Amino acid sequence: PLVTTTEMFKKAYEGGYAIGAFNVNNMEIVQGITEAASEEHAPVILQVSAGARKYARHAYLVKLVEAALMENDIPIALHLDHGADFDICKACIDGGFSSVMIDGSHHSFEDNIALTKKVVDYAHAHGVVVEGELGRLAGIEDAVNVSAEDASYTKPSEVEEFVTKTGVDSLAIAIGTSHGAFKFKPGQKPQLRFDILEEVSQRLPGFPIVLHGASSVNQEYVEMINKYGGEMPDAIGIPEEMLRQAARMAVCKINIDSDVRLAMTAAIRKHIVENPGHFDPRQYLSPARDAVKDLVKHKIVQVLGCSQKA
Ligand code: G3H
Ligand code: 13P
Ligand code: ZN
Ligand code: NA
Predict the structure, then answer these.
(1) The domain spanning residue 182 has which CATH number?
(2) Where is Zn(2+) 2 bound in this sequence (predicted)?
């Protein structure tokens, strides 16, 4: 059966590593991720956004993850990414997820607390865990496009009250990461506010912290995309060393979506260009699935540190 993230996060916190939370939309992505995690004996979180749920539909995603559970003997959590309101969280709690995020970060502090608490009460009554968020990331958070000016770092002075009053199981914070493949302007030096992470963890001893917008946008994939007809100039992400540092600290969950998209797109573009006669989707989706698997293995071993932790 699916597991919640409780045990995963406890071990990750104590062991100074993080669990990968990868966004899933289709069979190839689910297979690529879970085969990689299985071969590395790593626990893994599969997460579904509102957009993914709309694209693939709830039942298909749940059944794909159930199939992955049948084939792989590792802890797998199924998580709602960026739940915008109580109703989508309830639908996922009732519909078989083991974890949900309620993203109240664009509301006032008081409204965020009230909304998050409502979700926590319902989730906990059903054995499901909840991730909340304080602070705003720049970039695209689902439908809401948060401009750099509207982005704001998490205020450490708010975290104890938020966690105590809501009862959340984990907390996403904003320390300079952002969603998407264009995280910094060209020439801008990537920086994260590790001082904020440190202060948050001192105020919440032992409490699992989540990092969104944490793709590294490996230039290997960007170059492949551009070489085979794509146009993604100046795509740039979070350096891996910064993620390793975060994983050694209180960060127990690192969210990765863009890197999976880039790996798949690079593999598909290359295949299509090199094999102009191919028209069977399995011919280009196989290398795409392999690319997801290679990427996830790299993350598990080189970035997250969760290999052999299942
Ligand atoms: O945080 C956003 C995730 O990358 C999901 O993106 O809403 O396009 O599925 P999406
Ligand atoms: P990236 O766009 O950096 O992969 O972030 C994904 C994410 O935070 C999903 O919630
Ligand atoms: Zn996110
Ligand atoms: Na950690």
Answers:
(1) 3.20.20.70
(2) 103, 133
